[in-house]
Amino acid sequence: MISAVMPTYARVDLAFERGEGCFLFGTDGRRYLDFTSGIGVTALGHCHPHLVKALQEQAGKLWHCSNLFRIPTGETLAERLVKNSFADTVFFTNSGVEALECTIKILRKHHDDSGHPERYRVITCDGAFHGRSLATLAAGGNEKYLKGYDPVVDGFDQVPFGNLNEMRAAIRPETAAILVEPIQGEGGVRAGTVEYLRALRQICDEFGLLLAFDEVQSGMGRTGKLFAHEWAGIAPDVMALAKGLGSGFPVGACLASERAAKGMTAGTHGTTFGGNPLAMAAANAVLDVMLAPGFLDGVDKRGRMFQKRLAGIAKRFPAAIAELRGQGLMQGLKCAAPNGEMVDALRAQGLLTVAAADNVVRVYPPLIASEAELEQGAAIIERVAGRLAQAAAPRAVRPAGASAKAK
Question: Which of 56, 343, 384, 388 is the Cys-Cys partner for 320 at CB 3.0 to 4.6 Å?
């Protein structure tokens, strides 16, 4: 008999009754250090006082009025995002996948309005994850997620992540754009180098393509800058955001330059709930915190410290952690043993993490995590890595002639 909640998740048998800062409190009576952050969502931790106050005040005034009318707080949020990014315009959504759907539509519409409707194909990368709608599943190209949903939506060509020769070779007359994650989260916390991201910009400019970044996981301060691509000193034409934008409240955004979004006029796209007053209150409150002087500098400093600490652990216990990946507070531990073993062992010790592809464990602390809290998490990782490394060590060979221990 099917459960009342559709069984599409292999859930851990653990529930939480409340959260505070970097911690979650389980119904089992235990306190857990949350370095999952809802898979990069609760960027400012749980129940951040400024966010709680903003939502409480808005909830007492207006929840929904629809996009048939102006939403002043949404206009304010859009202006703030434009001011602090490459973009000229913003479309608000409820989630990352909706932001990616809007992104894909902009990429196609741009070329159609430019007199080239044949240019509709988008080059993406192996290992990418852009969401679970039919179009974004096709964009990711992962056979595991596509199974059972044929026919696959046409219009996407995958190339190896980080390979510029393959990227150039995939361009054809029908190509409209390149869509990449500056850091692949679900794909194993694989970061594109500064040189790679800059080269993508150059390729797009050379071939008249649009460059789109999926910063649903890597954006909103997680790497120490508001957006991960800023480290490369370049600008995309379109970008999808979500997750940390609402720090737990469902909200996403598609940001675009005026040139890219020139065809997005009245009636070309829409949403019922996107940009509603509650979501706008939450996202504005998030920006209040993230854009405050020194906040992102602090995230960068603590992220570098945390990465250095994890690198030391990986070096000490290569039998448990084969490789450290990521940037800032978006770290990935490529495991020597099945990553599920490490996730389970860390949770048993009171630290929450999440698995990713390529046998990686994602470690995403809230951006508000203090040095002491980051050290607390690192100490648990070190303890578990030591135990896993010890378990992986070959058993000592008994000296010749030694007898087995009597039963």
Answer: 388
